[in-house]
Each structure stands twice: as structure tokens, then as C-alpha cells.
Design brief:
heterodimer; A: mainly alpha; MetI-like fold; 74% helix; flat; B: alpha+beta; Methane Monooxygenase Hydroxylase, Chain G, domain 1; Periplasmic binding protein-like II; six-stranded antiparallel β-sheet; four-stranded antiparallel β-sheet; elongated
Chain lengths: 297, 531
């Protein structure tokens, strides 16, 4: 047996092996995909199921229709669209303000040299290690105390909720943003400075346009985090019309889960949709941001 | 730091170039802020919120320094962010520590001074006290004065803050007396008829006569000289009941008599390490707490292992640049990650519903039996791990496939030459190199799961409940959900102090793990190089 034919044989068997292995892996992939999308399909099906209860649901409903979505509009006790609007509003405001504050601060950390700079950066990182959830009781008491003096910053108020979100959003984002800013060459700033531009002009007109990719990632991570928050909103908000979607869905689930499973599914689907679309459309950017240390919360 | 030396060319810009008008505007805004804070501090101190007042004071001084001093120019760029962080992230941490050493909670919500004021306002009618019949007069300005008649028929004029007087008709504007000995008119005042006087809401609260011998309206017919019911004895820190002579001593923020009777409300007071002592040695709490902590660790560790290894397995399986439909498969597999966690958890709650949920029904039809996911403690735990697996494996899949791609291929080729088996390659090359890359994220994920409140609370609210615990606790409760129940559920009375103490204990656990992470990953050195 010559060595050439043996190599050919080896190659042939390797290629068969490879095809076999890809086939097995595709089968595994199918099972994994079923595991990962079954709940989502189940909810889509439930939302289209006209009988609308948990017990009567099949994967492909008998007379699919949008009855559950219509019912969602008319629930007096559960103002779904108000909740949805609240969530979108709070997440948007938080995300925009937090982005502006963080960007300006990160710019200063990246471009200016001042005493205590390193200490401050490290302190911000360290404070961020403390899980915000742990300060929940204190945050609640604090907002309740502030509310005794300034009612519109007290409990049961979107403003105070947004402020608490803003206070918690500084840490990771500043590091992410500063890391990106450090990669922008300083020659750009320096040449502008020679021309007599002020820091503010350099920042707004030169640096900001270059920051667009990271701005999008930070804004979106922030938006998703705020939109998905449950516990702060649950503790700080007080009335049905103020609740965010996450709080509202939890209350709805507690009250009418089994009888109105279809309506709940419709609501859950609409609530999940904005975030799912963002994730799937911007997969690559978000994955990049994630691996830098953000854990889904 | 030689590598960054070249960056230090940029100097802080001089602020003197800022035109006059913006500077004036800045000063005006600062003054407005200061005025507002002074007003705020005043109110906060009056209400007894001292820690919050101190926080506002320190933050305001910081803001003033930053705005007024030229050297602080770079800080001005970040002052809004720092103020928000100080107020809503740092202050709550410090306040948590303060609360942990107090009895803050139900029936201990006000300061000692506020409680004292409340008790010292309480009055009683001594046996020797004098009772009168009364007639009220009201001025146009809303001031009141009383005409009192004692049992002997003597008439008195009682005005708030002044001693009783016994005027004759004609003196001090007092008009002619009627048949009952009551003046028909008093100059400047209007006589109230019996019905108006009886329904007047402010009248019973007014103290007539001089301090210490005040007279109050007690009923539509009677006014009496009342004495304070309690006197505070600061030497023994006790309230003395003047009517019965019983001393109520301050016991952990409640005035309590030796017979065990207590005065409500209690007040906030430092109880030193008592909350922590309760945590560690209270026999009633020990049982459920040991159980809770064990499950808390088991949950975090098992979640991490399951989620990580499933994610890793998938990443390895599809870590092949030529794999068909790779992009599509990845998009479908990360779907669980894209659904907001809360919605996922609620959906799983529906699917696992014991009688009606699809999974329970499927198992039922296959085996004629289905697990009680919510009422049996072991099945509840399994369900939580399963839901968490679904929630989190895509995250690990993503970070593992990223890390796998960064492992240089020539190491594998070298291993192939040496005749290493696939298992050896995985064990000796892939796993160690991967752990270096994703190690910090694994630890972050552990601490996240250690405090995964949403999952525990939304899936089953920590249930099924553990029987016979002094405060409500469930078999799947972790420390943070237990804290939530203590502080907000109010089933047996909220206890913020104890909740804060447990929070601090959690912090020490999380802190120790994080410190280990910093050591392990030499993160500080990296931080040092990057700044």
C-alpha cells in the first residue's frame, strides 16, 4: 500500500466523519432550538387562542384570532397601555439623561489630568460592585423621607424613580465610555486647540460624532436595563396608573393568570417585543458590550 | 506611568476666558441651589431626618467648592453625575449601615423627640382638678375666648396664654350677664350658640389659661383644668405616668413598664449590635436562616455550573467557522436572552402550572403523574434551576464562543502532533484558557445569582413556606428575598433594621467573593494600567 493512497483514504474518511459530525450537531441544534424557542412559540399561540385560558391551550389554536389583543385595550382594572407607555417613557428619559451625564464625565476622565483622577475612577468601579438591590430598603426609606418635604420627589412618583435609576447608571458605563474615548487619538483635540477651540467645542463638534457606536451600545444597554427593572419600580411606585409594564404584568399575573392566560400572553408579547427587536437587530454590538462585563439584570 | 506620559500634554484650560455673563449666570444658579438646600435642611432637621440632612449638606458643600474653585474645573464636567451617584447610590449604602444598628421598623418610625412631644401633649383630669361649664366667644380674626362658670356660679374669662380673670360686667369689654350668669357680649367677640360651639373642630385643641394650668374643652358641656399625663425623667430615661405613678422605661425604643405594658408609638433608637446578634444566635431564627443560606449558596453555585456548562457545550459544538446556518442557529438560540427576564419567569410559571400548564400536562399524559412544581420544596428548587438555565445559558454561550475564538489554533496543532486525545485537549488546553478569559464574568454571574431576587420572588415568591418560622420564609427563599419580605411584605410587621443588618451580611459575602475576583484576575493592576 503506497503512502499516497493511504493519505487519500484518510482524507476520504475524515470527510465522511466530518459530514457525520455536522449531521449529529445539526440534530442537537434542532433540539436546543426547540428548547429555546418553545416558550416563545407557546406564548404566541396562547395570545392567539380565542378561549384564552391556560387549560384549554394547544400549540396551534383552533380558531386563531386577535380577540386577546382587543381585550387588552379594554381592561379597566389593568391599564396595560398606560403601563406600557410609562415603561417606554421612563426607560427613554433615563437612557437619554444618563447617556449625556456619563459621556460628559467620561470625556473629562479621558482628556483632563487632575489630582484624584485615578482614585475616583477606582472608587466608581468599587461602588458599582455593591449590588444596587442591597440598598433597596435604604433607598425606599430615603425616598419616603424626601417625599415628606418635597412631595413630587417622594414615593409614588416617576421623577424619583428616574433619579434613582440615574444614580445607579454611572459606574459601568463610565468605564465603557472612557475606554472607547481613550482609543480616539488626542492629536485631533490638540490641533483644534491650536485653532483656539474651547474644550466644550472640541467635545461637541469633534469627539461626539466619533463616539456614535459606543453611544448606541451604552444607550441601549441602559434602556434594556431600565425597561426590564422590576423591584425598584415595585417598591417606589404606588398606584395602578403609575406602574411600569413589568410591575403591571406581575400584578396581572398574580390576579388573573389562569382565567386570562391569553390576554396575559398578548401583553407579555407586546412588552417583550421592543427589547427582542433591539437585541436581534444589534446582536453584534450588544455582544461586544456584554463581554466587557455587563451581566443581564 | 510612562505609557500615558505623552497624553499629559493637554493642560486644564484656563477658566478666565469664560465671558462675564455666563459666569454671573452660573453664580446665580449656585445661589439658588444653596438657598433651596438651606430651606430643605431646615425641614429635614425639623422632621428628624438627620442622616439625610447631613448627606445633602456634604453634597452641597462639594458642589460649591467645585463651582467656585478654578482647580476643580475638570470635576465640573462630571458634577451632575457625581451628585446623583452620591445621593442615590452611596448615601443608601451608608444609610443601610445606619439603619442596621437601629430598631427602625413598624411602630419605630419616628424620632425620640417626636415621640416625646406626642406623649408630653397627653393630658389627664386630676381628681382634684376643677371642672367648669363653658361658653365660647369667637373674634372676627378667628381667636377664641371662653367664659367659664364653676360649680359655685363664679364666672371667669379664659384667654389662651393668659391667667384666668374674674371680671365684673363692664370691665374689659364684658357686657351684661344673663340669667345664667353669662355675658351676652364681649367686646370684639361674637358669642357662639351651643350648636356652633359643639361642632367647632378647632375648639377642643385650644389651651386656655396660662401655661401649666391650662383649661381645655372636654365635652359640649364641660371644660376642665388638665395636667400633662406624662413627665419625662431624663435621669432614668423613662416616662412617668402622673395619674398612676407607673414608670415606663425606655427599652429598645419603646417606653415599657416593669409589668410589660408599653406606650405606643415607639421610636427609632440605636440598638447597637442587636440585629446582628439576632441573626447569628436567635434560636427562633437560626433554623430557617441556616436553611436559607444553604439554599442560597446551592442555588448560586448550581445555577452557575449548569448554565455555564450548557453554554460552553453549545459554544464548543458550533465553534466551527464553516458550520452551516451558523448565524441563524445563533440568533434562534439567544432568543431566551432577548426576552425581559420578568416576562420569561412569568411565562414559565404559567407553563409549569401543576394542573393547567403545558409542561405539567405533557408529563401527566406521559407518566400519569406530574411533579408539584410549586408546593413541593424539591420540585420547586428544580423548577427554579430549570428556569434559570433557560434564562442564562445564551449569555454563557455568547461569552464562551467569543473566548474560544481567541484561543490560538497552533496550540491545538501542537497537541495533535503530541497525540493528545480530544478529552485531553479540552481538559488541558480549552478549559484553562477559557477560564482565564471568562473567569471574572463567572464570578460576576455568581454574585448576580446569589442575589437573583427577580427569579425567586416572581416564580414562587420564595414558596412553599417553611412552617413555624417567626417571620415568613419559604423553602426557595434566598437572603435577599427574605430581606424584601422583612421590609415590605408587612405580614408580621416590617423590620427595616433587621432587613438592613442582613443586607450588610450579604454585602460581606458578595464583597469577599469580589475581592477574591480582584486578586484572582489581577484586575487592579489592569485598572492601573488603563487609567
Amino acid at each position: 500500500m503506497s503512502s499516497i493512497t493511504s493519505i487519500q483514504r484518510l482524507r476520504a474518511s475524515a470527510s465522511v466523519q466530518r459530514k457525520f459530525s455536522i449531521g449529529v450537531r445539526l440534530i442537537i441544534a434542532v433540539f436546543l432550538i426547540i428548547f429555546s424557542i418553545f416558550p416563545v412559540l407557546w406564548v404566541i399561540s396562547a395570545s392567539l387562542n380565542p378561549t384564552g385560558t391556560l387549560a384549554t391551550q394547544k400549540l396551534i389554536p383552533d380558531n386563531p384570532g386577535f380577540g386577546n389583543y382587543r381585550e387588552l385595550l379594554n381592561l379597566e382594572q389593568f391599564p396595560f397601555w398606560t403601563w406600557f407607555g410609562n415603561s417606554l417613557k421612563i426607560a427613554s428619559i433615563t437612557s437619554v439623561i444618563s447617556l449625556s451625564i456619563t459621556t460628559v464625565a467620561a470625556y473629562a476622565f479621558s482628556r483632563f489630568r487632575f489630582r484624584g483622577r485615578q482614585t475616583m475612577l477606582k472608587a466608581i468601579l468599587l461602588i458599582n460592585v455593591f449590588p444596587g438591590l442591597l440598598a433597596l430598603v435604604a433607598t425606599f426609606l430615603m425616598i419616603s423621607q424626601i417625599g415628606d418635604v418635597i412631595p413630587f420627589l417622594g414615593l409614588g412618583n416617576h421623577t424619583s424613580l428616574i433619579l434613582v435609576y440615574l444614580g445607579g447608571a454611572m459606574g459601568v458605563n463610565i468605564w465603557l465610555m472612557k475606554g472607547f474615548l481613550d482609543t480616539i487619538p488626542r492629536d485631533i483635540d490638540e490641533s483644534a486647540m491650536v485653532e483656539g477651540a474651547t474644550d466644550w467645542q472640541i467635545f461637541t463638534q469633534l469627539i461626539l460624532p466619533l463616539l456614535r457606536p459606543i453611544l448606541i451600545v451604552v444607550a441601549i444597554l441602559n434602556y434594556i436595563g431600565t425597561y426590564g427593572d422590576f423591584v425598584l419600580a415595585r417598591v417606589l411606585l404606588r398606584s395602578n396608573e403609575q406602574y411600569t409594564l413589568m410591575v403591571g404584568l406581575q400584578i396581572f399575573a398574580g390576579a388573573q393568570f389562569q382565567q386570562r392566560w391569553g390576554v396575559f400572553a398578548a401583553g407579555a408579547l407586546i412588552g417583550a417585543l421592543p427589547i427582542m427587536i433591539i437585541y436581534l437587530a444589534l446582536q453584534d454590538q450588544i455582544v461586544g458590550g456584554l463581554t466587557q462585563g455587563a451581566v443581564k439584570g | 506611568m510612562a505609557s500615558t506620559a505623552s497624553r499629559d500634554i493637554l493642560k486644564v484650560s484656563p477658566t478666565s476666558t469664560i465671558p462675564f455673563v455666563p459666569r454671573l449666570l452660573r453664580l446665580a444658579i449656585l445661589i439658588a441651589i444653596d438657598v433651596f438646600v438651606v430651606w430643605l435642611l431646615n425641614r429635614l432637621v425639623a422632621l428628624g431626618f438627620f442622616p439625610l440632612a447631613a448627606a445633602f449638606l456634604i453634597i452641597t458643600i462639594f458642589v460649591n467648592v467645585v463651582i467656585l474653585r478654578k482647580e476643580a474645573y475638570p470635576i465640573r464636567w462630571m458634577v451632575v453625575g457625581l451628585v446623583l451617584m452620591a445621593l442615590f447610590t452611596i448615601y443608601p449604602i451608608i444609610f443601610t449601615i445606619w439603619v442596621a444598628f437601629t430598631n427602625y421598623g413598624e411602630s419605630h418610625l419616628i424620632t425620640k423627640q417626636q415621640a416625646l412631644d406626642q406623649f408630653l401633649n397627653e393630658k389627664y383630669l386630676p381628681e382634684a382638678g376643677k371642672a367648669y361649664t363653658w361658653t365660647a366667644f369667637k373674634s372676627d380674626a378667628g381667636d377664641y375666648t371662653l367664659w367659664l362658670t364653676d360649680a359655685d356660679g363664679n364666672g371667669y374669662l379664659a384667654t389662651p396664654g393668659e391667667p384666668l380673670i374674674q371680671p365684673q360686667p363692664g370691665e374689659l369689654g364684658v357686657g351684661e350677664l344673663d340669667a345664667k350668669g353669662i355675658p351676652a357680649t364681649i367686646e370684639g367677640y361674637q358669642r357662639l350658640n351651643a350648636i356652633l360651639a359643639a361642632t367647632d373642630k378647632s375648639l377642643p385643641d385650644i389651651l386656655f389659661g396660662e401655661a401649666g394650668k391650662t383649661i381645655q374643652v372636654r365635652s359640649p358641656t364641660e371644660a376642665a383644668e388638665l395636667l400633662p399625663l406624662y413627665i419625662y425623667d431624663s435621669a432614668q430615661d423613662a416616662m412617668i405616668n402622673q395619674e398612676t405613678g407607673i414608670a415606663y422605661k425606655n427599652l429598645r425604643g419603646t417606653f415599657t413598664s416593669s409589668a410589660g405594658q408599653s406606650l405606643r408609638p415607639g421610636f427609632i433608637e440605636s440598638i447597637k449590635l442587636n440585629n446582628f446578634r439576632d441573626f447569628f444566635i436567635s434560636p427562633a431564627l437560626r433554623g430557617p436562616l441556616v436553611q436559607l443560606i444553604t439554599w442560597n449558596f446551592a442555588f448560586a453555585i448550581l445555577s452557575l455550573l449548569f448554565n455555564f456548562f450548557l453554554g460552553l457545550a453549545i459554544a464548543i459544538l458550533f465553534n466551527d467557522p464553516d458550520f452551516p446556518l451558523k448565524k441563524l442557529i445563533r440568533s434562534l438560540l439567544i432568543i431566551p436572552y432577548t426576552v425581559p427576564a420578568l416576562i420569561t419567569i412569568l411565562i414559565w410559571r404559567g407553563m409549569l402550572n401543576p394542573d393547567l400548564g403545558v409542561i405539567s400536562r405533557a408529563i401527566q399524559s406521559l407518566f400519569g403523574w406530574s411533579p408539584s412544581w410549586f408546593t413541593d420544596q424539591w420540585w420547586a428548587k428544580i423548577a427554579i434551576l430549570l428556569v434559570n438555565l433557560w434564562l442564562s445559558y445564551p449569555y454563557f454561550m455568547l461569552i464562551c464562543s467569543g473566548a474560544l475564538q481567541s484561543i490560538p489554533q497552533d496550540i491545538y496543532e501542537a497537541a495533535l502532533v503530541d497525540g493528545a486525545s480530544p478529552w485531553q485537549k479540552f481538559r488541558k488546553i480549552t478549559l484553562p484558557l477559557l477560564l482565564v478569559a471568562v473567569g471574572p464574568l463567572l464570578i460576576a454571574s455568581f454574585t448576580f445569582n446569589f442575589n437573583n431576587f427577580n427569579l425567586i420572588y416572581l416564580f414562587n415568591a420564595g414558596g412553599p413556606p417553611i412552617a413555624g418560622t417567626p417571620t415568613p420564609a419559604g423553602h426557595t427563599d434566598i437572603l435577599i428575598s427574605y430581606v424584601y419580605n422583612l421590609a415590605f411584605s408587612g405580614a408580621r410587621g416590617v423590620n427595616y433594621g433587621f432587613a438592613a443588618a442582613i443586607t450588610i451580611i450579604i454585602f460581606f459575602i458578595v464583597g469577599a467573593i469580589t475581592l477574591f475576583q480582584f486578586r484572582y484576575t489581577r484586575m487592579w493592576e489592569e485598572v492601573g494600567e488603563n487609567v
